[in-house]
Design a protein that fits this description.
Blueprint (H helix, E strand, L loop, with lengths): L3 E4 L3 H4 L6 E4 L14 E7 L5 E4 L9 E3 L7 E6 L4 H8 L10 E3 L3 H51 L8 E5 L8 E3 L3 E12 L3 E12 L5 E8 L5 E8 L7 E5 L10 E10 L4 E5 L25 E5 L28 E2 L9 E4 L2 E4 L7 E6 L5 E9 L5 E9 L6 E10 L5 E6 L3 E3 L5 E7 L6 E10 L4 E11 L8 H4 L8 E3 L7 H4 L9 E10 L4 E13 L2 E13 L2 E7 L16 E2 L2 E6 L3 H10 L2 H22 L9 H14 L5
Parallel strand pairs: 1-4, 2-3, 2-6, 6-7
Antiparallel strand pairs: 1-5, 3-4, 8-17, 9-16, 10-15, 11-14, 11-16, 11-17, 12-13, 12-15, 18-29, 19-22, 20-21, 21-29, 22-28, 23-27, 23-29, 24-25, 24-26, 24-28, 25-30, 31-32, 32-33, 33-34, 34-36, 35-36
Helix pairs in contact: 7-8
Length: 660
């Protein structure tokens, strides 16, 4: 193994990393290059035939010491081509030393050119390292600031301090004097760059010039970054919740230091005679910030918007119309599945077939068809609103995995704002793969369909199998990606329109006049066999009352013998339902109102409350058959006799004179 030696008197300078070092044969005279801006070291023969490094090759004697490593400041070793020094460098084994680059230079000028090139490379490396270090330092400082701001927000919340003030960062001209743009029927996608960074945004506002809408139509707004396309804010607003004014949409919190340009995505689905008009900024804007997406848009026009900023950490709120599923997801251009809300599963009806309902933990109960050869099953779920969705994906789970042909057919039935059927489409029978635990069937949504009823038919021709309808997801497809739908298992790009949709379940047919409520949740079920008493305590979500919506209604479905009653309580843990509480009965748990199945009981209720309260109760009567079906589908009500509850509900409404 070959060795390098270093003159002891020159060691201090050699290991001084503040100045670069160049090593070369004495005749190349590296000290004259660049006015000695580096420390030149001569490469000379040392003791025992090894190579030595020294500052002055003319010195008569050197006190040598072994060289343990080359410092990072050593640029290169320059030698003459064909010289003994070059041969020694090429032939020697200097491990564990790592040699710096070796330059073969015929003269001083050639050596200078090689050294300058290496010096420039080292400068670039140093610059990159400096930039990386600076970026790391900036990120560290930013993380400290975020931590401090988050702590400030926590202290504000824990201390009960009010929300920080949101201030207008940018606003269009007054919307009342500007032009308007009426969104076309069907599905519409618009986009506008806002020419402002996302940093510090806490709310946006969009001016609605005019509106006339139902729950079947909807407006969706998304705030995302122009470069990353990450969605930072997403809101879904049913058209019947819009009014001609500023629509202010709060973010969940104040956005941190995000300096990419903010982009607003506006999507709408309009059915029937519903309409939405957006206010436009009366002044022309630059092309790159103009509203785009529809050929009918006026040139160089932008939507009338306002942007609000606040101090980071000062506002943590629960926004209206917030769409949690899309936050921090990718941009809206790619596929983005949206699963139906969990409450919707409480509206699933078994039209025919042997079926049960199962749930895992806090998950909503889902239907399971217990199929046998020649005994098909059909499920139905109504009033699904899937705006801005190109296809639906139905998910099924088999137990045990299907080892015989399992056939599935899916249906879509469109409805207008009044709940009347306007068309029906069928996917045709699809044969699911054998020996699989999960399978998917995709179906294209016809153009312009807003409110949907979904039907699933299942059948097997060989052996018994349990099939769970696990999920329904909406899928967005770009035009160029639409062909992917045909490649999905059971997928189809086209759907066949049929003359007649599958018939609904008879027990709920009379009450199917629109989305009466979004779902139910059972609090508990109480059964007292000795007293022939049982009740189901439940919450009903989003009860529709004419054009309004009651967020939560709590009641008890009480059965004594064959009679059904509705029980309400005036307690702090029950949501307020009546405008005027019908005073009267009390028990050990507080005031209660029990609606008996008789016209006299209904008349007494009307005398104790207001006309608005009677409207609320009438809306509850309309939804009651489907509420009972949804409650019986819950695992907590397992073992209850569906036919008895359904018959008692019909008798209850008939005795009140409300339901023929």
């Amino acid at each position: 193994m070959s060795e390098f030696y270093l003159a002891k008197q020159d060691a201090a300078d050699f290991f001084d990393l503040s100045c670069p070092v160049a090593i070369g044969a004495p005749e190349l005279r590296l000290g004259v290059i660049g006015d000695a801006r580096w420390k030149p070291y001569a490469l000379v023969p040392a003791k025992n035939g090894a190579l030595g490094l020294c500052r002055d090759p003319r010195a008569p004697n050197w006190d040598w010491e072994p060289l343990s490593y080359f410092g990072s400041n050593v640029l290169a070793i320059a030698v003459k081509p064909g010289s003994s020094l070059e041969a020694a460098l090429k032939s020697g084994d200097f491990a564990p030393l790592t040699l710096p680059p070796v330059i073969a230079a015929a003269d001083t000028l050639a050596a200078a050119a090689g050294l300058f090139g290496i010096a420039l490379d080292e400068m670039r490396k140093s610059a990159r390292l400096a930039v990386d270090a600076q970026s790391a330092l900036a990120e560290t400082r930013l993380e400290i600031e975020r931590t401090q701001e988050a702590m400030a927000a926590a202290l504000r919340t824990l201390g009960g301090l009010p929300l920080g003030e949101a201030q207008i960062a940018w606003s269009s001209l007054p919307a009342q004097v500007g032009p308007t743009y009426r969104l076309p029927k069907g599905a519409t996608r618009l986009r506008q760059r806002l020419a402002l960074p996302l940093d510090g945004l806490t709310a946006i506002a969009l001016h609605i010039a005019a509106t006339q809408g139902s729950a079947a139509s909807a407006l969706s707004i998304r705030l995302r970054g122009a470069d990353s396309q990450i969605i930072h804010g997403s809101w879904h607003i049913p058209a019947d919740k819009l009014t001609p004014s500023w629509l202010t949409l709060d973010l969940r919190h104040v956005l941190g230091p995000l300096f990419e340009t903010a982009v607003l995505d506006i999507e709408a689905t309009l059915v029937g005679d519903d309409r939405i008009e957006l206010s436009l900024d009366p002044k022309d804007c630059e092309d790159y910030v103009a509203l785009t997406g529809d050929d009918a848009l006026p040139a160089r026009s932008g939507a009338c918007v306002r942007l609000f900023r606040a101090a980071y950490g000062a506002r943590n709120i629960l926004p209206r119309f917030w769409n949690w599923d899309e936050i921090n997801s990718g941009g809206v251009e790619g596929q983005l599945s949206g699963h139906i809300a969990p409450e919707c599963w409480s509206r699933v009806e078994t039209v025919f077939g042997d079926a049960t309902f199962v749930s895992i933990g806090a998950q909503p109960s889902r239907p399971v068809a217990n199929l046998a050869p020649g005994e098909p099953a059909r499920f139905r779920i109504d009033d699904i609103v899937a705006p801005h969705t190109d296809a639906l994906e139905f998910m099924f789970t088999m137990s045990p995995p299907a080892r015989a042909p399992l056939r599935v057919q899916t249906w879509i039935e469109s409805r207008d704002a009044e709940g009347l059927a306007t068309g029906a489409w069928a996917s045709g029978w699809k044969v699911l793969p054998i020996d699989c635990e999960r399978a998917y069937v995709a179906m294209r949504i016809p153009e312009g369909v807003g409110c949907l009823n979904l039907v699933v038919d299942l059948e097997t021709s060989d052996r018994e199998i349990a099939v769970e309808w696990t999920g329904v997801a909406g899928i967005k497809l770009d035009d160029e990606d639409a062909e992917q739908l045909a490649q999905m298992p059971g997928g189809s790009q086209e759907v066949a329109k049929v003359d007649e949709a599958p018939a609904p379940h008879d027990s709920a047919a009379a009450s199917r006049t629109g989305p009466l409520f979004s779902g139910i949740q059972i609090d508990h079920v109480l059964v007292i066999p000795d007293a022939d008493y049982k009740h189901i305590d439940l919450n009903i979500f989003d009860l529709r009352v004419e054009n309004a919506c009651i967020p939560v209604v709590r009641t008890k479905l009480v059965r004594r013998g064959e009679g059904l009653m509705l029980e309400f309580r005036n307690r702090a843990d029950w949501p307020k339902f009546f405008e005027r509480w019908p005073e009267g009965a009390k028990d050990q748990f507080g005031p209660l109102f029990l609606l008996q199945p008789s016209p006299a009981s209904l008349e007494r209720f009307k005398s104790l409350t207001t006309p608005q309260d009677f409207k609320l109760m009438s809306a509850l009567f309309s939804a009651l058959p489907r509420v009972v079906v949804a409650a019986l589908n819950d695992p907590q009500a397992a073992g209850e006799n569906h036919d008895e509850w359904t018959a008692n509900t019909a008798r209850f409404l008939k005795d009140l004179g409300f339901y023929p």
